[in-house]
Each structure stands twice: as structure tokens, then as C-alpha cells.
Amino acid sequence: MATARPRAGRQKIKPPKKHGPNVSVDETWIKLRHNIVEMLNHRAAHLSFEENHRYGYNMVLYKNGHMLYEGTCGLVVENLEKLAANDLIPTFPSGSNDDPIQRSQEGETFLKALRKLWEDHTAGLYKLKDVLNYMDRVYTKSAQVPEIWDKGLLLFLKHIIRPPIDSHIISAILNQIQTERDGFVINRSAVKGCVEVLLQLSEPEGQSVYKRDFEPAFLRESEAFYKAEGEKLLETCSAPEYLSRAESRFDSEEARTHHYLSASTNAALRHILEDNLLTPHLSAIINMPNSGLDSMIDLDKLNDLSRLFKLFMMVPDGLQTLKRATRESVIRRGRDINSASVPNDGTDPPVDEDPGGKGKGKAKARPTPASQTLTLALKWVQDVLDLKDKFDQIWSKAFRSDRDLEGTLNEAFETFINQNEKSPEFISLFVDDNLKKGLKGKSDTEIDVVLDKTILIFRYITDKDLFDRYYKGHLAKRLLNARSISDDAERGMLAKLKLECGYQFTQKLEGMFNDMKISHDTMDAYRRHLGDSATQGMDISVIVMTSTFWPVADNSPSCTFPEVMIRSSESFRQFYLSRHSGRRLTWQPAMGNADVRVTFRDKSHELNVSTCCLVILLLFEDLGDSDFLTYQEIKSATAIPEVDLQRSLQSLACAKYKVLKKHPSGRDVNSDDSFSFYADFSAPLYKLKISTVASRVESADERRETKDRIDEERKYQTEACIVRIMKDRKRMTHNDLINEVTRQLASRFLPNPLDIKKRVENLIEREYLERCDDRKSYNYLA
């Protein structure tokens, strides 16, 4: 049998010495106990880790784990009590100091002492955990007790974070937070260190001390603070300042939870801020006199409005409150604009024919009532556009282009614009003014901007068919009198209207442009036809208007032409009818104009006048300078309707260029006036334009007449729409038919359901429809 021998020069390795039956357990514990105390007091540098680990290992191995576990816990408790008595309890805040700075410093000292005690305790636990590793792996699992690290935390919780110390801890942290909320600077790291302790300490069921004890107390204190804060700010601050301070509170609390509190507290804390700073005071903030929403809008405080939107969007009722207040603000401003567009009923001041006796007998210029109302109409549209621009800027820059608020703004503008019954006419007058002179010198881009803004306002009106009537009349005057400054702009506006309302809306307007082109070609052919045999005395230029396209009434008034005009008009009539069969020409003198050379005593002038004015002037051709024609004689000789006659005479005798003299003098034409040729008339220019009242706001009588015509047209349009729908559907319920008719007619006007019902009844009587047996539906009768 071979015998193994150690090699020369190598020492034999001996197994570690074990505790045998003759080794005392008490002696082992005494040694280990001494060493544990040294570890807890941080004097372990001279100790042997292997030796202490072997002591713990042997005690567990020989069934003395309970003695080791309980003894170690007892030593930890003794160390905690010693540390608390020596280092922590002496730093308790007195609680009687009224100085916030000193009170904060006392709390900071206490919190630092607690954190130091925690670090001291956990440093000792780390050493014990390493030394008693075998006990943790074997004994604690079989005995179902916490490992020494976890037990050490529980002992810290039991002997340190318990009355009376726990109340001091929570009070100290809350005091530091309150001090910071009051605007003082604190040592955040001291608070953060203690909060981390509370977060790491948990009960056996798993809830941290922070969640169970500190957070509820902190939230209660916060709610009480911010409830009082909201009421105080509401009493002492303006709306912008309130919003600024509220925003600052939100930011500071978020930073607080980020830097030294738990992030899990942020949501609950945010709700407290919302419920106490915002929700109860929404209406009070937004309606604050001299500083609320209206004031911010008036002063263009976009930053304050942006802050208001941001804060209001945080709470459920905020958006609705803001929408309601914004809508009321827009409508109130719109009503002010509507009120400003109503002319005063006061009488005009008298004209001073020669103020001071130093003039040359010329009347001082002053606006006429018609021009005043036109100015008000143009100002109304411009004010609405300015208001729209203002709120568009607020919506995009302050309200972050929120779609709900966009709908509210559109609804508000639609409301007050349609409250002004003259809005369709005003918008048409605004377009007319711009297309005649307002776009002069502007680039294509600037023209598009003006037209686009006009379409924005047009989009809000519900009576688009009423706008169509006014626009057609204004467009006709621009085309007939060659007053449009840009053909491209005219067609651009037409394209925008077509895009907005469809082809049917602009069909007649496009027909007017087409008539102008055809008329130009016709006149070229007419002049070639005349050749050298042109009618002497008058050169005629005719625009042939299709009656269904142009705003021409079937019973439009005419007048008695003088012989020279009759010869020219008959010549063209014969030429035109020779080229077109089955057509009838009706002259429209009220829509024409003429250039006439008039010789006065000093010199001659070329006057541009309306056709009616020309007819009147020709009456004075063979009269002497001192001869008179009475109003009634002129009316009888010309057969011009009284309204047009008064306007024409007013243009010739009462306006800027007085080529006729009115007797007696004055601005108004009466039926007992008489007129004579003003031979002494002179003016610095050779060519003069004597305009009748151009685009103007309708009078009350004219408006009633227009409304009656529109109502009549709507009846036909509604009936045509009903028949068109029923022809396609064959059978429909009453409600479905009402809804479909409303939808299809909305592009021209908003029909009243009662009016639709009347049209249905009318169609039933005329046997286009029949009522079904259920009395709730209709059938179409082919």
C-alpha cells in the first residue's frame, strides 16, 4: 500500500479549527458580541473577518442560531438607543421660535442629525450582513424571520421612526417646505436625505413610511395652504398676476417633487393645486374687472392669455369656461360694431355757402347722408376684419390653435354678423369699394389677402342669396361704368365665391362677364357695319345684357329720349336684330353714361354724366341763359322716374360741379323748384365727371322691397329643392325631408322649417306630392 508523503519544502495545509463539544457557546458569543459592538461603533479595522464569520457560522451550525439572531438584534437596538440619545434627541426643534429663518435652521439641524444616524446605522448593518451571511442563508429562512439587513431596518423604524421622534421628523420636513413656500431658501439636500430614509423604511406589508405617514400629512398641509392662498390671491391680485403666481406655484411644486420629494406625490399634489387655485376661481379670474379676459384682449397681452389657456386647460371645467367667456367677449364686441354702423338720426348741419364772406361763393364740402352711411358700412366690415385678425392672432399664438376654441370663435362671429341685417349689403359694398379703388397700387398678393379676408366674413353670413343680389348689382355698375380697377381681381373674387358656394352661385355673375365680352365684339362689328355712314351727332356704345344674368327688372323704367339719341339707338337696334332673331331689346338709361361737350360763357368742358343727366341737359340746349324749366316740366319732358330724376338734378345742380342753377338754392330737390343753365360755370379741368350717388346703403323702403323679392325667390328655390329631392327619393318622412332641404339650401340661405312645411303643403295642393297614410311621410307624384 502506497503512502503519500508531503513533498520537501512545502508546508501542510491544516483545516480550520472547529468548535467541538469542548468549546463553550457562551465563550463564542462573548467574543462575537464584543466584535459586533466594535463593528457598530465603526472600530472594525483591527478585527478578522474570517474569525468573526467562523464564530457566526459555528453558532448556526451547532443549533444556536436563535441566540445569535436575538443577541445581534439586541445589540443593534442598544446602539440605536445610544445614537438617538446622544445625537438625535438633543437636536429636536424647540417649536417655540417665531423667526422662520431660525425655525428653518433648527429643523435643518435635526434632519441632518437624523440622516447621520441613518447612515451610521446602515454602515453597521452592511458589516453585520457580511459577517452573518451564513445565518441569513440558513437560519433566517428556516426560522422564517427577516434577514439581518431587513431586521435592522425594522428596528430603526421601531425605535427611531416612532413617537415622539416621528412627529418631529414630519413636522421638521413640513416646516422646511412651508418655509420654502413662503419665499425663503432652505437646504434641500437635508430634506431630501430624510425623505429617502422614509422611502426606504417599509412596514412588513410593504408600504413605505413616506406613503403611510408623511405623504397624507403633507397633502393635508398643502390643501389647507393652497385653499387660503387661492382666496388671498383672488382678493389682492389682478387676473394676470393671479395667473402668473398660480403658474409659479405649479412649477415650484413640480420642482419640489422632482428634487427632494417622491415623484409619486406629484399627481396628488397637482390635483390639490388645481382644486384650490383654479377650479373654484375660474369665473372670478376670467371676469375680473379691468384685468380679466376682456382687458387682456384689449391690451393684446398674448403672454397672459397664453398662460390663462395653459392653466385653464389643466382642469375639466376650464375649457368650457374659457369658451363661454370668449364667445361672450366676441359677441359683445361685435354688437358694439353693429351699433356703430347705425347712422345718427340727427339732421345735417346747414351749408355755409360763403363762410366769413371771403370766399368765392363755393359751398364748403361736407359729407352727404348717403356717403355717411356708405362710410359706416365700409367701417363696419373693416372693424369686423380687424376683430377677426385680433382673435385669429390670439387663437394661434395664445390658445395654441385649439380646435374647440376655433369652433367657438366661428360661432360667435356668425352670431353677431347675422344679427346685423345689413351685413350682406355691407360686405358687398366693401368688395365694391375695394375693387373700384381700394386695391390701387397693391400687389397680387395683397389683393388676395384682402379678398380672402372678405370671403372669411362672407362665410359667416347665412343669407348668402341676399349677398348675391347686392353683389350682382354692384358688379353690374362696375362693369357698365368701367369702374373696376383690375379684371384679374374681379375674376379672382368670382373664383373664391365659386369655391365657397359652388358653380350655381356664380353662374349668373360669370354670365355678366361673358356679356361684356360679347358686347365688345358686337360693337366692333357695328362700327364696321356703319363705316363712313356713321350717325352724325352721337357716337353710341351699347352693352347688351342678358336679362336673366343682370339685375334688371322686367318693368324697369325708361325715359323719353331726344331725337339725336333716338336715331343712334334705332340704328343699333336694327343692326342687332338683323343678326339675332327672336330677341327683344329694352333700353336701360338708368344704367348708362355719356360724355358730352358743353360750351359755357368762358370755355367748354367735356362732362361725363349719366344717361338720365344727358337727357336733362339736352333740354337746355336751345334755351337762353335766363330761361327756366320747372321740375314738373323736366319730369313731363323726360318721363324719368321721380327718384332717378331727383338724383340726376341733384347731381347737376347741387353737387360739386353745378352746371345747372337751382331756384331756390339748396341741397335738396323739391317738386316746386325750377332750373336754368349756369352759363358762368368754370372749372380748372377740361374733363369733369358729374357722378350720381354711387354705391350706397339701401334706404328702409328699398330694403323692404329687396326683402320681399328675396322672400319670393326663396319660395321658388325651396319648392324646386323639395321637388328635386322627392323626385330622386320617391318617398321620405317629414323630418328627413326638412333636414335634407335645409342641408341643400344652406349654401344660399338658412330656411325656416315652417316655411319648408308651407312649401310642401303648396306642392301637395298642386299635386306634385301626396301625403302618405301614416301622415308622417310624402310620396312623389310623377
From TrEMBL:
- Membrane-crossing ranges are none
Residue ranges of every copy of the Cullin family profile domain listed in the record:
422-653
Compositional bias (Basic residues) at which positions?
7-20
Where is it found, in Gene Ontology cellular component terms?
cullin-RING ubiquitin ligase complex
Biological process annotations from GO: ubiquitin-dependent protein catabolic process
Organism domain of life: Eukaryota
Gene Ontology terms for molecular function: ubiquitin protein ligase binding
The record's similarity note reads: Belongs to the cullin family.
**What name goes with this protein?**
Cullin-3
Q: Which organism is it from?
A: Steccherinum ochraceum
Q: What is the lineage of its organism?
A: Eukaryota, Fungi, Dikarya, Basidiomycota, Agaricomycotina
The UniProt gene name for this protein comes to CUL3
